[in-house]
Amino acid sequence: MFGLTALELARIQFGFTISFHIIFPAITIGLASYLAVLEGLWLWKRDTVYRDLYHFWSTIFAVNFAMGVVSGLVMAYQFGTNWSYFSSFAGSVTGPLLTYEVLTAFFLEAGFLGVMLFGWNKVGPGLHFFATIMVALGTLVSATWILASNSWMQTPQGFEIIDGRVIPVDWLKVIFNPSFPYRLVHMTIAAFLATALFVAASGAWHLLRGRDTPAVRTMLSMAMWMLLVVAPLQVAVGDAHGLNTLKYQPAKIAAMEGHWENKPGEGVPLVLFGWPDMAAETTRYKLEIPRLGSLILTHDWNGQIQGLKEFAPEDRPNSTIVFWSFRIMVGLGFLMLALGLWSVWLRWRGGLYESKLFLRFALLMGPSGLVAILAGWFTTEIGRQPWIVYGVMRTKDAVSNHSALALSATLIVFIVMYIAVFGTGVSYMLKLVGHGPESHGPEPEAHGDELLNQRPARPLSAAPDHLDAPSGAGKGA
Predict the structure, then answer these.
(1) Is 286 left (phi over 0), alpha (psi -120 to 50) or beta?
(2) What is the pTM of this model?
(3) Which residue, among 157, 151, 200, has the nearest Cα to 342 in the 3D structure?
């Protein structure tokens, strides 16, 4: 299809499925922790606003969780169907790590999810709060094992190769490999950022439509405080992650910076914009700031990094893609920081909920956290190429023996089915967001009386069968 090889099609297919999948766990991680905070505030202050927000966002969490589970199963099967040689070579490491994720995180989430979604009026408040915390903890444990596996592929340690297969010899080194701590913290903060922006966009949407309620104000305010705290923290973590990547994957950093060669006695410039040309081995049309790259990348005004020309052509990542995906991620990150700072200024001026320009910006930034996550994953995964296990196994040696025709056909099926299934799910979730939080009165009725005597069969049972127009909704801004 389109003149692509079987290897390229297999990579595109996996990239497509993981791009769909990653947005759901990211929101699940953030929303689970957000729900734990909301329920804790409700138990502490007994302010019904927090209880109403909990019920509102738990419904959205249920829909998102279900889509994350389904999309993750499809992605897991591809290791055996499309990447069988990788599974045969490195399965003794990646297999147990993914198994630990199921035995710990998935069972923890599944064990307490039903209590969290359906037990509000059936168990005591303490037990219900404990269930919510356990679900939130489960999402973080899940991310830990998944990132341990992926980080090992980026910076592999603690193994030997015996008879053409990877054999783990030190599980602590396998799990706590050099890039793991940075990637885990970076991804977790990214999930919190994406969720805060999602919640903020929801609040901005309702305020712009004239639905100015205490619940709407509270979720916008909480999201802005979260954004203000974690956006600067992400900048610091990203810098530390970059230093780690420079040490263990210097070709990736060179590709991200569009840096081809050093000049004697000169520091590395920061290329703001440009077009890396892999064939010509140069970055065209570049706008750069002298020596700033050295200061950011090495914390030394005169520091230098390896240029792409110092690596064999077959060992270079595609700088054209990585250069721009990295800049999309960083650019969106600074916009998030700007939004958080703007919110502080408006809060001080008393206009946080009235500034339509700010609210429109917050609404526009709603999907930016997820876009930044995708751009970051493209950067780290494409930047690892041509290795599937960095420095150990090349991607071309990991792919299964499928024809380009077979992979083309399955890729088309994936695209059609994903758009149909997950497009419907996302559309329904956005309708729930658009419906907005409602007050349930002085007595908590989490999901309606009709659910109190119903035995839930699946997470989606927590979502309503129909949506009435939200009370108090105003006209569009």
Answers:
(1) beta
(2) 0.86
(3) 200
**The amino acid at 66:** A
Runs of H (alpha helix) within 46-124: 48-81, 84-101, 107-118
Chain centre distance of CA 208: 27
DSSP class of 321: H
DSSP result, 374-387: HHHHHHHHHTTTTE
Give 235-260 pLDDT, tens digit per residue.
999 989 989 999 899 999 989 888 88
Model confidence at 293, in pLDDT bands (50, 70, 90)? confident
In DSSP notation, 285-338 reads EEEEETTHHHHHHHS-TT-----GGGS-GGG---HHHHHHHHHHHHHHHHHHHH
For the chain, report the end-to-end CA distance as a whole number of angstroms. 45
- CA–CA distance, 41 with 37 (Å, rounded to integer): 6
Give the H/E segment covering residue 285. Answer: strand 282-289
What is the tens place of the pLDDT at every residue in 57-92?
988 898 888 888 777 777 777 777 888 888 889 888
d(CA 105, CA 12): 29
